[in-house]
Amino acid sequence: MGAALTGGLAACSTTPAATVAPRNLETRAADDELPSDTSPVPSPGGPPVVTGSFVSAKMGGRETRWAAVRPSGVSGQLPVVVVLHALNTNERSIFSSKLDIQSVLQRYVDAGNPPFAIAAADAGRNYFHQRADGTDGAAMVLDEFIPMLASNGELNVSTERLGLFGWSMGGYGALRIGALLGSPRVAAIAVSSPALWADPRNFPSRAFDSYEDYQANSLFGRQEEFAKIPLLISIGSSDQFFTYTRQWAAGLHPPAAFGTSAGGHTNRFWRSVLPEQVEFLGRNLAR
């Protein structure tokens, strides 16, 4: 992991001129498209993954799957990190052999660090805000999934103060949900390669339905909402979102921990930074 870039980032203008008109919304169509990963193979290592589902009114009444882990060898109620997944992935992807966050968590806890649980729900391709089709992945997480976690006796987690983690589409989602919940409810946010677009004329329709939708849900110009939330941003130096992410981070005061090293928008990079992210989330949840 490279050194944290906590200053010296050039600020950018985040308010579009009144005369700006939307351009072709698919000109950056490949930016956060990942190969479809609808049925990832569970990792043989780490604690067992608990799964379930619920009917989500916020997702159009569809059956919504979830997955969660508790580290082995610990008992009692644990804090929880809610994971927001990337495009073309699902609630199991963070626990698959490609990312295997549960093994990272188990090693962290086995080293004597404070334990916590990890849980994710399937938001499809929603992009974690209200869409034209009536679905809203963020509302599903806030109004249905987190309350379900709190009432699940098998998981035995506390949601009074929680962590957020996400990558790509889910990185944007974790940031947006963190802004909605705020501090002190959110103990910390860790994101990898957040799918952020700084140009209101150039974004894909899978992320925002219209220019007005972008204006309502873009995180540019809202950096003050993170002033009291510990934030770790990890992104590869060749990632297609690197420039936009740096621009967004430049508006954070106090600055976030911003880590970069060689890598792209890939599972290989995301897995390489998971130990630091798990440690960051655990440390802040324990405070």
From TrEMBL:
GO MF, one annotated term: acyltransferase activity, transferring groups other than amino-acyl groups
Stretches for region Disordered: 30-50
Q: By what name is this protein known?
A: Esterase
Q: Which InterPro entries match?
A: AB_hydrolase_fold, Esterase-like, Mycobacterial_A85_antigen
